[in-house]
Amino acid sequence: MTISVLKTFFQKQSPTIVNYRDYNNFNVNAFRNELLEQFTNMGDDITYLKFETIFIHLLDLHAPMKTKYIRANNGPFMNKILTKAIMNRSTLRNQFLKCPSQINEYNYKKYRNYCTNLFRKEKNKFYNNIDISSITDNKKF
Prior knowledge:
Elements: H1 3-9, E1 16-21, H2 28-42, H3 48-62, E2 65-70, H4 80-98, H5 102-128
Antiparallel strand pairs: 1-2
Helix pairs in contact: 2-3, 4-5
């Protein structure tokens, strides 16, 4: 069976896209002062559409919109410990690629092996604890 045939049977799910505002550097007083300044310059000629455009524009300056992609297709055996280990492994890999020294390579390889062993243990633990009598559909399994 070729790879192209496998791709037709197992479609990868698309990631979930989450939009949110970044309030890390948001200063309420500065936002309020700029908003008041904009409306005092407008005078009495304020409509809802003008108010909305000015408000959204200032909010985008002070608390910009950000997009986060949440990956789909996580295995049922994935847990928080394994996810954190993978993130640490990626960090060590990036450090090694930026500054390829023997210490960084050793740290990355050591943690990579730890992640691989943890992955195998978690997978075995999950599949060994499955109740076989509860599985009715092979496709869902």
